[in-house]
Design brief:
By secondary structure, this protein is mainly α. Helices cover about 50% and strands about 5% of the residues. The chain is flat and about 50 Å long.
Length: about 90
């Protein structure tokens, strides 16, 4: 927690804090106490589908899942551009 205090701007300069990963869940109480008035976006607002959230490990997969969804969107967009000019 002291590291966060050292590296982040002053609390009054933060609009929000995005905290991700399985460790975030483990340290949730402590992190809430570090940012009592700053809104925290847990796991970037990413919700892993239940089928991938076996044994409640979804938050450890949130970054990979979000990247996969983003990549799929980009690939489909490139595909549409490629066929639009034909």
């Amino acid at each position: 927690m002291s590291w966060l205090t050292e590296v982040l701007p002053n609390k009054n300069e933060l609009d929000e804090v995005i905290i991700c990963g399985g460790t975030a869940d483990y340290l949730r109480e402590e992190l809430d106490s570090v940012f009592p008035t700053t809104p925290i976006v847990w796991h970037g607002g990413v919700e892993v589908p239940q089928t991938l959230n076996e044994q409640w490990l979804g938050n450890r997969l949130a970054d990979v899942w979000a990247l996969s969804v983003y990549h799929g969107i980009k690939v489909r967009a490139i595909g549409r551009r490629g066929t639009a000019g034909e």
